[in-house]
Amino acid sequence: MHIRRRHRSAPKYTYTQGSEPTSAKKALNLTLLLTLAALCLFLSGAVMFLKTLSSQIAVSDASDIVIDKVNSAIADILASGDYDGDYFVSFEKNSSGEITAISSNMARINALSAQILDRVVGAATDTHTLTVKIPAGNLTGISLLMGRGPAVPVQIIVLTSSRVEFSNSIVTAGINQTKHQINLNVIVDIDILIPWGTESAQVVTEVLIADTVVVGKVPDTYLNMQ
User: Fold this and answer.
1) Does 20 score more than 80 pLDDT?
2) Does residue 170 contact residue 178 with C-beta atoms inside 8 Å?
3) Distance in Å from the first CA to the final CA of the chain
4) Which residue in 146, 147, 138, 158 sits closest to 52, CA to CA?
5) Per-residue pLDDT for 67 more than 80?
6) CA dist 52 to 88, 190, 194, Å?
C-alpha cells in the first residue's frame, strides 16, 4: 500500500504598493498645490496693494509740487503789478452818489489771465520728470510703520495742461452791504506716468483779483463786460 503525500506549496504573495503610501503622497501634493495657490494669491494681492498705495503717494506728491509752483508763479505776477480792485472794476453812480452798475474791464482781466497762464505753463513744465521717494514703511500699509524705513525712489513723468477761467459773484456782506468779487480759477490737469500705469489728477487754484464792498442799494447791473 502506497501512501502519497501531497506537499502543500507555500502560498505566493504578490506585493504591490499599498494604498496608504499613495494616499499620503496625493494628500501631500494637494497640500503643496493649495499652499502654492494661496501664496500666489497673497503675492498678487500684495503687489496690487503696493501699486495702489504707491500711485496714491505719487499723485499726492506730484500735485503738491505743481500747486507750490503754480502759487509761486501767481504770487510773483500779482506782486509785480498794481492790481488793485479799481484796476479791474469801475462803478457807475447816479446823481445821488449811489452805485447803479459794476463794470468789469475784461481786457485787463484777459491780459492778466494770459500772463498767469503763460507763467503757470512754464512752471508746470519744469516738473516734467520727478523722483518721488516713498518710505519703505508706507508700502506695508501698517500705520505704525508709516514714514519709517529707507526711501524707495520712484521716477515719474508729469504731463500737464492748463487753463484759466473767469468767475464773479455778488453776495450779501451784511446789513445794507453787498460784496462783489472777481476770481480767476487756474486749472491744471495732471497726467502722471508711473512705471506700472498712469494716474490723473486736477489742481485748481482760485485767485481773488478784485474784492469790493458796496454800501447802500444793491446795484441794478452786476456786471457789464467791456
Assistant:
1) no
2) yes
3) 148
4) 138
5) yes
6) 46, 18, 11
